[in-house]
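Hi Y.,

Following your request, here is the sequence exactly as I used it, all 796 residues.
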Amino acid sequence: MSNAPAQPNRRSFLVECVSILYWAFFKPSTFHRWLRAIDPDLDVVTNPFSLRERFGANPRLRRYANQVWLISALAPALAMPLAGIIHPLLSGGAFRWTSSLLFLIGWWLGLVIARSGRGSRVARIFLLAVFVLALLWSAGLLPALLRASWAVLLITALRPVIDVLSLAVTVWPLSFGMALGVAFGVAAGAAAGVALGVAFGVAIGMTGTVAAVAFGLAISMAVGVTIGVDLNMVYSVTKIMNVLRIPFWLIELPWMLLIALRARSDQDAARLIPWLPPRFDEVIVLPLPFLDEIIARAYRANQAAARETLGYLITRTNQQKAARRAIVAIAIDALERCATTDAIGAIADDLAWIPNPPPKELGGLPRFLEIAQDVRAAVQATSLYRQRELLAVPLQRLKRMREGMAFDAAQAARFGAAVDRWQAILETAMRTLEEGIRQAGEIPQVYIAGPPLDPDLAETRFKGRVDVFREIEALALAPQRPTLLLHGGRRVGKTSTLNYLPRRVGSGIVPLFVDAQGLAVAQTMSGLARELARQMIESARRARNLSLPQPDDAAFERDPFAQVLEWMRQVERACGDRTLLLCLDEFEKLEEIVHTSNTRAPLHFLRHVMQHRPRWTLLFAGMRPLEELSPLWSDYLIHARAIRLSFLHEADARELIVQPVPDFPDIYDPAAVECIIRETRCQPYLVQLVCTEIVNLLNRERRGRAVAADVDAAVIHAFETGAPYFREFWQSLSDAERRALRALAHTGTPPDDVSPAMLAALVRREVLRAADGTYAFQVPMVRRWVRERSDAADPP
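Below is the corresponding structure, written out as C-alpha cells. Let me know if you'd prefer a different format.
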C-alpha cells in the first residue's frame, strides 16, 4: 500500500477559498493565526509568491498561494455580470461593459506580474509604459476630458488611490474595493481602466491582500460603475460606512436584539452565547446592546461557557469594553447572590479568574476576596470557638468597608448591597456559633503556640510588655532620638511585640514594620529597595490606615537607595508631623545581602537615615545583644540603645494561662497554674504550648478541670508538638555548648573544661542562670528535654 499522503480534493480547495474571503472580512484574528500556522513569515500583507522557494517543503503555503491567486482573479469577473444587472435597474442607463472589461484585463495582467514574484521591479517599468499608452488611447475622449479639466481628473483619480492604499491593510478591504471601483468606474474611463487595473493588480498582488480585496472589488464593480454622482461625496460616504462597517452592523444589530428577546432565562442565555454576533464577526465597531448582560446571565447557568466567551472577546475581537462590563456585572452579581458563609468562602475561588488588577469599576473586589478568604478560614476552623473568633475579623472588615463608602458614592452604589448582604450573613453565623458554643460545653482552644501573634486574629492574647512599649515610645519621641536594638532569645515574642506596637503606642508614632527575611529574597539592589518600600506602604496602611505615595519603579532601577531617600521625603510630607518608626525585624539577615552582593550599600543607606533623617527612628530587632553582633555592625549600631525582651513577668504569664481571652472558663486548679509557671519559667511560647496541650487533654477526656498531674502529661505531649522549637534551639548551639548542657542536665554541674566565657554567653541568651557561683537551666522544661530527648536531635 502506498504511504503517499492523500491529495486534497477540489471541493475542499474551493471551500477554503470561501473561508479565506470570510476570514479576511469578518475574522482577521483567526485569519492571522491561520496564516502563521502555515508559515511563521506569512501575514495578511505578505505576497505568498514572494516565498516561492519554500513551496517544495511547505505544500500548505503553495496551496494558499494558489487560492489567493484564484480568488483575486475570479472575484471581479464573477461580480461583473451582477453589476451589469444592477446598474440598469438603479440608474436607468446602460452598463459600460467596455471600460469594465478593459479594467478587468488590466487587473489580470497585474496579477500575472505579481504571481511571477517580480512585481516590484516589473511594475515600475510597466506602469510608465501603460500610462503613456493610456494617454494616447484616451485622445478620442479629449473633449470630455478637457471639460472635466486634467487637473480635476488627476486629483479625482489619484486621491482615492492614495487613500485606499493606506486603508487597504489598516482598515478593511471593503473600503479599498468600493473606493477603487468609484475611482475606476466613474473617473478613469476605458484607457485608465487598463493602466490602473494593471498597476493595482501588481500592487495588490505584491502586498498579499488580494484575497481580501477581491471581494471588496467585486462589490466595487457593482457600486462604482453604477453610481455616477459626485465622486468626492461618494468616496467620503463610502469611507465612513466602511470604517464603521455599517452594512454589516445593520444585520448584526437585529440579530443581537433577537438573541436578547429569546434569552428569557439564564439557561437560554447560556445556550445562545455561541451565536452572539462577535462569534462570526471579530470586528464590530458600532455598539451591540445587551451583549454584556447576556454573558453575565449565561455565567449563572454555565460558568465555563461564559468564561470562554469572555476570553474570546478579549483576545480575538475588539469587544474588550463589553467584556469588561460583563466581568463587572458577573462579579457584582456573584457577590450579591451569596446566601451562606460557605458561599462567601467559595467566592475567593469562584472569582479567582478575574484579571489582577481587576477593571477599575471593580476597585473594591480585592477587599471582598480577602474577606472571603478570611471567612473560608473561619469555616474550616476545628472548633466552634475558633470559628467565632476568626469570623469576627471579616465582619469587622465589612463594617469598615461600609463606613468608607460614605466618602465614595460610586463604590457605595456598586457594592453597597453586597456589603449589607454579607454583613447580615456573617452576623447570623456569629449568633449561631455562640449558641453552639453554649450548648457544646467544649473548652475553647484559644492558645496560639508557634506563629507570631497577629492583632487582627489574636486580639487580647498578647500579654504584658508594657515596660517595653513605654520605653520604645519614650525613646522614639525624644528630642535626640537614638537607634534602638530590640533583642531577645528565640520565641520570646519579638515579632509579636512589633505587630502589636501600633496598638500600644500613641498615634503620633507611625510604626513601619519591615521583615528583613523578605528583603533577603531580593536578587538586586533595586529589588531590595522596591521590597523595602512595598513593606513600608503595606505596614502604614495596616497600622495607621495611611496611604503612602507610590515610588517610581523606573528610578529605582537607576539609583535605588537615592530614590528611597527621595521617596522617604514624600512619606514625611504625607505623614505630617508624626514620627516614623522603621522597625527592621530579623535584621541580621541583612548580613547575607551584604555578603552575597559584595556591597554595603544597604547599611550605608540605613546609617544615612540614622544620622540625617530626624523624623525617622530606626528599631533593629534580632536575637543577639550588641556585644555578640558580628564586626560588620560595629560602625552602624555602636551607639544603639539596647532594649532586652525577656520572659514574661509572672503576673502576665498567670493572666495568659487563666484568662487568655475574655470570658475564658476557669479550668485550672491553683496547683496546676503553679506547675506551669515552674516548668516554663514564663517563657511565652512554652506557656502557650503547654496550655494548648492541657486544653486538648481535657477535651479528649471530657473533663473541665486541670490538676498538677495534667501539666506533666501536657509537657510530654509538648515535646512532640513543639519538636521544631527544641530542635532549632539544640542545633543553634556549638558542640562544646551541647556537651556542657548535657552534663548539666544529668549531673547538675557543667564539665570542668568548660570556659567561664561560654557559660556567661549561655546566661546572656537565657539558656542558663547563675546563682552563688553555680549554674542551672533557666527553664526546667528545657532541662528535661535535654536529658530525655536531645540525643535524637543531634545534628548529622
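Residues 173-207 form the longest helix (35 residues).

Thanks again,
Q.
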